[in-house]
Amino acid sequence: MRHRNPIRAGAGGAAHLGLVAGSLVAPIALAADTTAGLLALAGGAGLCWYGLRRARRAERTCAELERALADFSTDSAFGLAPDTTGLPLSIAESLDHVHQRIRRSSDDVSRAKREVEDARIAAANAGRARSEFLATMSHELRTPLNGSLGMLALLLDGDLTRDQREFAMTAKHSCQNLLEMIDEVLDFATLENDCLALERKPFKLAKTIWDAVVEHSARAAHRGIGLSFREIDELPQFVLGDEARFRQVLDHLLENAVKFTHEGEIALLARVVRRDAQSVRVAFELSDTGVGIPEGNRESIFEAFSQVDQSSTRRYEGAGLGLVIVKRLLERMDGTIDCESEVDHGTTFRFDAAFALHGSATKERRDERLVVPGTRALLCTMHPSFAEAFESQLKLLGFEVEVVMDPDIALKRRREDPPHVFFVDDNLPDIELHQLRCALDEEAAPAGCVHALLHGPEDTQPHEGFQGHVDRPTRPSVLRPFLMRLCEHTLAAPLPGSEETPTPQRARTTPDRARYEGRVLVVEDNAVNRRVVTAQLEKRGIEVETATNGFEALSMLRLVCCDLVLMDVQMPEMDGIEATRRIRAGEAGPCLDIPIVALTAGDQPEDRSRCYEAGMEDYIRKPLTERELDTVLSKWLRAVTPAED
Question: pLDDT per residue over 482-491, tens digit each?
Answer without folding.
Answer: 888 887 644 5
